[in-house]
Structure formats: structure tokens, C-alpha cells
Amino acid sequence: MKALTTSPVKMISDDWALLTAGTLDKFNTMTISWGGVGELWGKDVAFVFVRPQRYTYGFMEENDYFTLSFFGGDYKKELGICGAKSGRDTDKMALTGFQPIKAGEGVTFEQAQTAFVCRKMAFQDIDPKGFLDPSIMDTYALQDYHRMYVGAIEKVLVAE
Predict the structure, then answer these.
(1) Rounded to an integer, what distance in angstroms lies between the CA atom of residue 81 and that of residue 106?
(2) Looking at the predicted structure, is the pLDDT value of residue 15 above 70?
(3) Of 28, 85, 94, 156, which shows the fewest CB atoms inside 10 Å?
(4) Do residues 103 and 114 touch, judged by C-beta distance below 8 A?
(5) What percent of the chain is predicted at pLDDT more than 70?
């Protein structure tokens, strides 16, 4: 993790990432541009946010592992599809051409440049009572507050 040469902030907010939970037999992926990485409880961690109505939410709840897959700014069109379409009624792999592959206890994609395999450590539902900046409420017109998941980064995979 400490050997990354690209800013994790850039990797998530500018280049976007795929958050994936499940197994090769049954998984879902969604595009994220929120989240972060750091150190917590003596471990390298990633934290991600998922709204309860997202199809990926159920996969996050049911599985102990998730992955973050990074494409270095490539595949923005495909990442856009994975963010706009639901896996409930769309075959995202057919639309994007992404090739899922096993990554430890999770799933990543053959096209990814970097992937973090994360073991869930904790979750916390976002509570608007904690918002100190009132403009945050603009993000929640439907009052569909995210659940934050914290995962220990157990493996960092880098394409050769």
C-alpha cells in the first residue's frame, strides 16, 4: 500500500474505481468516486460509501470481502455505465467488456491496473445529526444516507 506511486485521492475522485462485492459466481460492481484510504486500528484500510437502495449494498452486507479496482483514468465510458446502470436488470459485463477475475476472496477485472482486496472490519450508517456543514444535506434530497464500510486492505494487486 505504501508503495503506491499515484495519489489514492486522484485514483478515487478523478479516475474513479469499481467497488465489487461477491464471488465470481455472483457479484455486483458499481462505480465510486467517493471514499478513501488510510491507516486505522493499526491497519491499512479503505473506506467506501454505499446507499441502501444500490444493488451492491446487498452484496456488501452478505460478503466479508470487497475489492476496489482502479483503471488509471482509462475506461471512463465503461465506468460511467457501471455507475449509471443497475446490476439488478443489466449485464454490466456485457455492456462494458470487463472480464471478472478472482482476486483473493474477491473479484476484480482483467483490465484493472490496480486492485485492493479488502476484508470488512466495520460499518457505520451516516447520521445527518453529525453534519456540521449544512450544504451536505444537498447530497441527500431523498434522505437516503450512505452506509460507510471500512475494510482492511489485505492485498494490493498491480498489473504487470
Answers:
(1) 21
(2) yes
(3) 94
(4) no
(5) 97
Express each pLDDT in 47-97 by its tens digit. Answer: 999 999 999 999 999 999 999 999 988 899 999 999 999 999 999 999 999
Note the helical H segments in 29-99: 55-62, 76-84, 92-96
Dist CA 64 CA 120 (whole Å): 5
* Rounded Cα gap, residues 154 and 119, in angstroms: 7
In terms of C-beta distances under 8 Å and separation of at least 24 residues, what long-range contacts does 57-63 make, across chains too?
Answer: 57/147, 58/28, 59/21, 59/22, 59/27, 59/28, 60/21, 60/120, 60/147, 60/149, 62/21, 62/22, 63/21, 63/22, 63/23, 63/120
For the CA atoms of 151, 64, 52, 74, the dihedral, rounded to the nearest 10 degrees, stands at 60
Name the residue with cell 477475475: 101
Residue 123 CB contacts under 8 Å (≥ 6 apart), including other chains: 147, 148, 149, 150
pLDDT at 151: 98
0.85 surpassed by pTM: yes
Nearest-angstrom CA–CA distance, 25 and 67: 15
Q: How far is 116 from 108, CA to CA, in rounded Å?
A: 9
Partnered with residue 32 across adjacent β-strands are 17
